[in-house]
Amino acid sequence: MALEHAILVSLTERAGSGYELARRFDRSIGYFWPATHQQIYRVLRRMDDAGWVTHTEVAQDGRPDKKVYEVSDAGRDELTRWLAEPIEPAVLRDGLGVKLRGASLGDTDAVLREVERHRGEHSVRLEVYRGIERRDFPKPGKLAGRELHQYLVLRGGIRAEESFVAWCDEVLQALSPSTRAPRSERTR
Question: Is 170 within 8 Å of 176 (Cβ atoms)?
């Protein structure tokens, strides 16, 4: 997937300026397809040149005019084409897993501290996702269409974060000082 498709999805949901789009990425779609504000502006220009989006200049008091983007017919065609195209399943590339695999070759305690740090960050993200779920989707059984689709993506994020936190807990339990073999046995 390219950032262009994530932007097309977001702009189909609601037109907006580059700044507004970047803020939306920070609060929602960016959790699943991250992009910097600079990347978003650069890709918007490319999409405008390709005819996938159009923009309207909106005057602002005391500030430069802003461009409000919306998806063009060509952009909708591209989005339709892309939605029908198969994609490969995601492949997990996780540096923490590689560190854990090699922990016996170095400082296991340092690797465990890294596992604890990752667990903390994933726990925070999990709570953010759960907060979004409570705020935006209080009655999931009544959802349909776009809102249901958004909810299901959020649920995928919640499940992934729950799984990662549980895995970190499993690692920390298995490698706690009381269950670890003495260092001399680990280096054999």
Answer: no
Count of beta carbons in the 10 Å neighbourhood of residue 44 = 23
Q: Are 129 and 154 in contact (CB under 8 A)?
A: yes
For 30, list phi and psi in degrees, rounded to 5: -65, -20
pTM of the model: 0.80
Residue 93, both tokens: 């590339």
Per-residue pLDDT of the chain (188 residues; tens, 9 = 90+): 689 999 999 999 999 999 999 999 888 888 888 899 999 999 999 999 999 999 999 988 888 889 999 999 999 999 999 999 998 888 777 889 999 989 888 889 999 999 999 999 999 999 999 999 999 999 999 999 999 999 999 999 999 999 999 999 999 999 887 665 555 554 44
Packing angle, helices 37-50 and 3-13, rounded to 10: 80
The two tokens of residue 37 are 């504000």
